[in-house]
Write a structure and sequence with these properties.
The structure is a homodimer.
Chain A: E1 8-11, H1 16-27, E2 35-39, E3 47-50, E4 53-59, E5 70-73, H2 77-89, E6 93-96, E7 126-128, H3 132-148, E8 150-158, H4 166-179, H5 190-195, H6 225-238, E9 245-248, E10 258-266, H7 272-281, E11 285-287, H8 299-302, E12 308-315, E13 322-329, H9 333-348
Parallel strand pairs in A: 1-2, 1-5, 2-4, 5-6, 6-7, 8-9, 11-12
Antiparallel strand pairs in A: 3-4, 8-10, 10-13, 12-13
Helix pairs in contact in A: 1-9, 3-6, 3-9
Chain lengths: 354, 354
């Protein structure tokens, strides 16, 4: 009997994250048996290339999960909420990139570098992958936590417009074309007037020549959903249910790769040299920290790469237990498709190989 | 005898901050008697309009300060360090926008909304105006400090490229023209290759479609000079010499107006309603905080205005003594020319008027 490689379904194959997932599947071509691509009725019938083969996109139906061992969900929250339990009921292990199940006590929230063990405890047959900011952040912060004992996080994000989907990228590209070659950006509202209010932008303010301190939906008491997601998810992944976390999420005119300025306070005193050693050897982390040589991570260098890049490591001058970090991670890779693929591969390893 | 209005000299009249100063002088035309414009030999002889009159720019010499009551210095640190004491020795009160004297114990560092009294204690005849980030920030934070008692600041900046001078703006404009209409920003280094390494940019990385977590020069232990300036200047202006301050300074592709994400911890418990009341009535502050209506400050709306705009006011969920704020201020106005003009006007008020 030939060993059977598990079969895989990619739900949401035609979206932005789906596109990155198809690249990753082609790079890790030996993990999976049959790969089926699934999307909404609107996109069904399209043909996409995965592992070098043209593959027709199937419509999202219950039957589409027949014989599927692992199903990746790269779709909006409401689609996951409805369809992930159906896929699980048909025997597939679901790895879900949406927010629908992240805080469900019966669904593990997994970043394989940090809490790989959690993937096996999945009473609903569903494993969740975190928000794009959390996924990149936690790889660095989790490694430091293991050594120093995390006690508080204050985070300000510099989020790429692709975090708001393809509409976010389209809005930035369109607005950049409107402001390039002009003298805009020096008078109140001049950028807003130039880019218009009526276009199909997911942002509440211009995103070219601007920053927008709002991401997600209202979550009460002035907080945005994205800010609370970082807090809730960091607590769950690190198993620190009372960790104080204060996040401010801000969109910046960057296509892809989220950056974060991190103030992390620990139980124990920290040393930059030791933090450097930890980050230099932590899985999924690149330490890039020599400002004198111009070495600090920026989105334009990090985009398209897998790891979380960390630089600007300093000990707080007034608190020997606090570190400042600047962290960059590609929100479409580690922040989405890559982490989902890593979780799925750890599930694949459970399947018998002989 | 006619009351004499004090005479004014503007040193650095031909620079970016000088240009904004000439606008402000024209708006506040009744404060000053004779206004002379002074610049380096390279720019001397040019004619600029101030208060509606063409005025020839004089060369920076000792004689240029003859009969000058108040001299505004809007020049690089080294020029101020050399020439401000000369102007003071000739009897002018110097208001200096450079970093040369900000931390000098014999030079007050003044933001008139916060520490107006300090302007009169100037043993060297020099008054300093703070860094552009500090000036906008402190107007909001100082008002809250007066009520709640500030105990700690964690700040991440979103700084406009004009903070790096006209070269910064030119670099952003040029780079935007290179990336607009392209698909750049999705592959490692694609923006860096497109905008080139050799151009005359003051930034160590591309600033279009990117963020650059470095501002100023190396200041030891991984900190940048701009980050330490915020710490030192907040401490001095608030007269809190031991205040813990951790700042991370990051350039973003915005022409003018610095933004800051602020985590402020106080001695006493804070209430958002009371913070709103304080900020709504604080001099030099505009409260703009209703995210449900899209009301939060962004650089594109704040640029060209005088006040510090504050929004996104939340109480930290895990610390009843901490507030999160998002603060925007035009770095060329309150962050530079406006604060200098305000200091100068408070000096002008000392002159007898009858």
């Amino acid at each position: 009997m030939t060993p059977r490689r598990p079969s895989l379904a990619v739900v949401g194959a035609t979206g932005a994250t789906g596109g990155v997932m198809l690249q990753i599947l082609s790079q890790h071509a030996d993990v999976w048996g049959e790969v089926s691509l699934i999307a909404s009725p609107r996109s069904a019938g399209r043909k996409l290339v995965v592992r070098g083969e043209e593959t027709e996109v199937l419509e999202l139906t219950e039957d589409a999960f027949d014989g599927v061992d692992v199903a990746l969900f790269l779709v909006p929250d409401d689609v996951s909420a409805r369809w992930a339990p159906i896929a699980a009921s048909k025997g597939a292990v679901v790895v879900d990139d949406s927010a629908a199940f992240r805080l469900d006590a019966d669904v593990p929230l997994v970043v394989p570098e940090i809490n790989p063990h959690a993937v096996r405890m999945r009473p609903r047959g569903i494993v969740a992958s975190p928000n794009c900011t959390t996924a990149s952040l936690i790889v660095a912060v989790g490694a430091l936590h293991a050594e120093f004992g995390l006690r508080e996080l204050v985070i300000s994000s510099y989020q790429a417009v692709s975090g708001a989907g393809r509409e976010g990228v389209a809005a930035l590209r369109e607005q950049l074309s409107m402001v390039a070659g002009t003298e805009l950006g020096t008078k109140p509202g001049d950028v807003r007037r130039a880019v218009g209010e009526s276009e199909d932008s997911p942002f509440a303010a211009p995103v070219a020549l601007n920053v927008v301190p709002w991401a997600g939906t209202e979550a009460g008491d002035g907080w945005s959903s994205e800010e609370l997601a970082i807090r809730d998810e960091c607590r769950k992944i690190l198993d620190l249910p009372n960790l104080p976390v204060a996040a401010t999420c801000v969109y910046v005119p960057v296509v892809a790769t989220h950056s974060m300025s991190v103030h992390a306070r620990f139980e124990n005193e920290v040393e930059v040299d030791r933090a450097h050693e930890i980050l230099a050897t932590a899985p999924g982390v690149v330490l890039f920290d020599s400002p004198a040589s111009g070495d600090f991570p920026t989105p334009s260098d990090v985009v398209g790469t897998d790891p979380t890049w960390v630089g600007r490591v300093r000990r707080a001058l007034d608190d020997p237990r606090a570190l400042e970090l600047f962290v960059c991670g590609d929100n479409l890779r580690k922040g989405a498709a890559l982490n989902v693929a890593q979780i799925a591969e750890s599930v694949a390893a459970e399947f018998p190989r002989a």
